[in-house]
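Appendix B.2, paired examples.
Example (i):
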Amino acid sequence: MINKSLICGLLTVVVLGCGCTEKKKEAKPDMKIVKLETTMGNITIELNEQAAPVTVKNFLGYVEEGFYDGTIFHRVIPGFMIQGGGFTAEMVRKQTRSPIINEANNGLRNDRGTIAMARTSDPDSATAQFFINHRDNGPLNYVANVNPGYAVFGRITEGMEVVDAIASVKTTIRMGMKDVPVESVVIKSASVVSK
């Protein structure tokens, strides 16, 4: 004879077990968070390691070694982007590691408030310099067989008002470079605040 209470108990275990398994699958990995302390305020960045693993690892390496501390936002174009991470306030270019592959085909878009890697005309030339999109910049997105794009690897979660303030500073030409702030906007420190 079949024991009904035993069957009900087994079904309950199976259903609860399935529920627990599903929750584990849905759980997102902890996002890595970096804080930039600048002379104009703080900017908090959530990094998307799942979409851009090589780029995030590269960026975190520079953050953790203190590379960005004392660098400036050396290219500021309102309604476009603010770029930093490569020069000191004296406009001395910092020595970087080898370039990384371009992960612009990761599905992330160069929308307002995202952070992406700066590079030369060679798609795989990004090293340490990055930029924060001040508006939606569709022309910077990856398009297969048309545009290699610029690799987005995170988004600003706090401090977009600081980005807006930086984007509005007065700029000039220094050392042959255009769009350099007249008064240096310095990244005092860059640190990982959550792993």
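Example (ii):
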Amino acid sequence: MKNLIVFTGAGMSAESGIKTFRDANGLWEEHDVMEVASIQGWLKNPELVMRFYNERRKQLLECVPNDGHYGLVELEKFFKVSIITQNVDDLHERAGSSNILHLHGELKKARSSVDPDLVYDIDGWELKFGEYCEKGSQLRPNIVWFGEAVPAMEEAIDITETADIFVVIGSSLVVYPAASLLHYVPKGVPVYIIDPNDVEAPGKFSYIKMKASEGVKELIKRIVSE
């Protein structure tokens, strides 16, 4: 089986009702992203950040995977599919994809504020102050914020370098280091970009200017018949 590597961004989940930074003009649920998605924001106002992610978790319970998510599961019949996602939701998992790497963390998990290797599932949607890790530090959202390293980046590069086909879905390709993955796609490998908006990317690629649901359907037509 050929290796199909899929890199997904916020546009992948937009049709499921999860807002993107792009569509909100740099605001996330009416907050400046640096207030709620940076280590500086956490240090300045942890109550706001904790409340913000509790609300995102509660919202996620009402969202369901869309046809784009399910389409990627369908592709596992024809390819060895690996998904690298910028998204912190669990919609790929709930759709049934079997090989997923989260670059920017996972909304439904918490981690130690002193040891990033101590990660825990959140029971329900609410994380509270006074919930501590085994080392005695406050649990924080398991999110890679602006200003923090991306621990899974090396693994993502290793996966990308195995691609026989590389697909980008719903990413503006402006957030680094994640956007640099395109530079690690092997030479000559076909690249597809699915997005209703204009996206700038290095090298040659096939552009499917559609939202994720319809775009994945079109992708299946193109690559399954090859």
